[in-house]
């Protein structure tokens, strides 16, 4: 049996005078526990029978709402315990309510999330997620959001604002929603918000990425890159080597290529850990890659040296510096690839990631999806099928020709 009342709880101040604190008093099996609402009230403003402030108090509406909110929170918890036939004490109930008072807001948990990424040396993702969080802060005008406030209506308004005023693409908006979803799931696991407030899923907000066109180079264009004379352009020659190194090894991501060290080469194979998901990968080194490596061996001092020059003199333990230098290097390499395309007389836009698309384009449907999954280092076959679908055109082309050839 429990009894909950709102009372004025007396306490002596430092001068020995009585002050009256607005308090919720819970009694369970004759034992009492109190929850202070951090408000001191004059007795003349208190309606004891009604358990609320009189209208002569300047903040009676706000404080009465506060009382009702906490009163309902305590009653809801008691009802939940009794419905599940669990025993409880007054102290246990109030401890739960006090803990709920200390719940992190959305932005506080977001800050905790980015700090954890930095501690884990995931600087690239930390910077990316912090940028997304700042976008949300701008939208809500720096209001300190609770998770309960992030509902479907808010997210839909956010989406419209990002598209119209923020000039964000649909993909960028979905990336922000993915982060919101991740933080919401973390909050549910930490009991910071109830599952019923989850705004994603069936009949709610759906995260769906728009289809994108992936265009890779073909065999002729790769040959042009291989054969173009760059004897007068040593910096672009280095860029070509990095691009082809990635291409020959099934499109290794540029960040991973730049962090390759000589120690990663063992018995004709290259071993490395993917920066994107920490998966360990091993690939046979083809002759074309051996030829590229030979042009850098004269710069090698120890096995701990980086293969390519972009990260020279940086400790492999300095994750922040590696992130900064890698980001700068990628920007410079992409600029050089633009010049390389002009010199090789290729009309397509070339970036570091096009090496991966080019491998997919040339692979087409020549080898099984299961083998491509291994080469791409995808966790799920469905990812490979979706990715490779951008480059398999023969069946559709033949079908089209069969219809219009009359």
**Helical residue percent band:** 40-55%
**Corresponding CATH superfamily of the largest domain:** Intergrase catalytic core
H-E string: EEEEEHHHHHHHHHEEEHHHHHH
Number of domains: 3
Provide the residue-averaged pLDDT: 87
Short structural summary:
With 406 residues, the protein is mainly alpha-helical.
SSE map:
Blueprint: E1 2-12, E2 18-28, E3 31-40, E4 46-47, E5 52-53, H1 60-83, H2 90-101, H3 106-119, H4 123-139, H5 152-164, H6 170-189, H7 219-227, H8 234-248, H9 254-258, E6 265-266, E7 269-273, E8 280-284, H10 287-294, H11 319-343, H12 354-363, H13 369-376, H14 381-388, H15 394-404
Antiparallel strand pairs: 1-2, 2-3, 4-5, 6-7, 7-8
Could you describe the 3D structure shown?
By secondary structure, the chain is mostly helical. The protein has three domains: 2-101, no CATH class; 106-197; 219-363, Intergrase catalytic core (hpI Integrase, Chain A, Orthogonal Bundle). Helices cover 49% and strands 12% of the residues. The chain is built from 15 helices and eight strands. It has helices at 60-83, 90-101, 106-119, 123-139, 152-164, 170-189, 219-227, 234-248, 254-258, 287-294, 319-343, 354-363, 369-376, 381-388, 394-404, and strands at 2-12, 18-28, 31-40, 46-47, 52-53, 265-266, 269-273, 280-284. The strands form three sheets. A three-stranded antiparallel sheet has the order 1-2-3. It has a three-stranded antiparallel sheet with strand order 6-7-8, with no helix packed on it. Helix 8 crosses helix 11 (319-343) and helix 8 (234-248) packs across helix 12 (354-363). The longest helix has 25 residues, at 319-343. The chain is elongated, with a radius of gyration of 31 Å.
């Amino acid at each position: 049996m429990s009894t909950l009342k709102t009372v004025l709880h007396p306490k002596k101040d430092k001068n020995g005078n009585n002050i009256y604190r607005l308090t919720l008093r819970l009694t369970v099996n004759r034992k009492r526990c109190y929850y202070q609402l951090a408000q001191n009230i004059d007795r003349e403003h208190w309606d004891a029978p009604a358990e609320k402030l009189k209208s002569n108090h300047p903040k009676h509406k706000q404080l009465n709402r506060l009382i009702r909110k906490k009163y309902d929170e305590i009653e809801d918890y008691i009802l939940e315990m009794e419905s599940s036939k669990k025993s409880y004490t007054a102290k246990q109930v109030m401890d739960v309510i006090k803990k709920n008072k200390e719940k992190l807001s959305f932005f506080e948990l977001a800050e905790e999330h980015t700090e954890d990424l930095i501690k884990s040396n995931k600087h690239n993702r930390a910077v990316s997620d912090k940028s997304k969080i700042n976008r949300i802060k701008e939208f809500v005008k720096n209001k300190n959001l609770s998770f309960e406030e992030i509902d479907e209506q808010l997210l839909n308004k956010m989406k419209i604002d990002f598209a119209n005023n923020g000039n964000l693409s649909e993909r960028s908006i979905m990336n922000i929603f993915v982060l919101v979803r991740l933080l919401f799931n973390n909050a549910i696991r930490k009991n910071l918000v109830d599952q019923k407030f989850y705004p994603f899923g069936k009949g709610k907000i759906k995260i769906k990425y728009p289809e994108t066109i992936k265009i890779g180079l073909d065999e002729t264009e790769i040959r042009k890159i291989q054969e173009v004379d760059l004897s007068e352009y040593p910096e672009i020659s280095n860029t070509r080597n990095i691009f082809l190194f990635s291409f020959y090894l099934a499109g290794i991501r540029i960040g991973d290529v730049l962090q390759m060290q000589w120690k990663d080469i063992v018995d004709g194979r290259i071993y490395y850990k993917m920066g994107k998901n920490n998966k360990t990968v091993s690939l046979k080194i083809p002759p074309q890659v051996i030829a590229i490596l030979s042009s850098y061996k004269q710069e090698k001092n120890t096995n701990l040296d980086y293969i390519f020059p972009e990260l020279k003199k940086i400790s492999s333990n300095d994750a922040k510096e590696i992130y900064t230098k890698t980001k700068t290097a990628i920007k410079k390499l992409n600029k050089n690839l633009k010049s390389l395309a002009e010199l090789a007389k290729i009309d397509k836009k070339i970036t570091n990631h096009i090496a991966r698309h080019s491998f997919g384009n040339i692979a087409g449907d020549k080898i099984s999806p299961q083998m491509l999954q291994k080469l791409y280092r995808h966790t799920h076959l469905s990812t490979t099928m979706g990715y490779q679908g951008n480059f398999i055109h023969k069946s559709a082309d033949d079908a089209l020709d069969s219809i219009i050839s009359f």
